[in-house]
User: Fold this.
Amino acid sequence: MVFPKKIKIGGLTYKIVFCEIDDAFGDTDFTKGVIRIDKNQKEEQKIATLLHEILHCLNSQLSEETTEFLAQGIYQVLIHNKFIKLPKNKEVTNKRIRNKKVDIPTAHEPAPASE
Ligand SMILES: [Zn+2]
Assistant:
């Protein structure tokens, strides 16, 4: 998947930057209009992280838990309905969780065993 360099969300334009982030998969600087995505993630994790940050841009009042729940749900709909195609060897899982305390089982996939 080719990520855009910029993305328009709610009338604002955000620059998308891939870089190293120590303590998160991604973050958004609302003042500068910059979404940072940790470059050391798998392709599918980058997509889910971008969705997560887009949701923060749409509504910064949502809790981190709700934001991640929605990001995971939208990500899985996009993958399962082939709006986004991953390389064939990529297994779609819901293992990517930003906060290890949050585990989000879906109707289609059993929750992964705790690691
Ligand atoms: Zn977040």
Q: What stands out?
A: The chain has one domain: 6-103. The helical segments are 43-58, 64-80. Confidence is low (pLDDT under 50) at residues 91-115. Residues 59 and 101 are 22 Å apart (CA to CA).
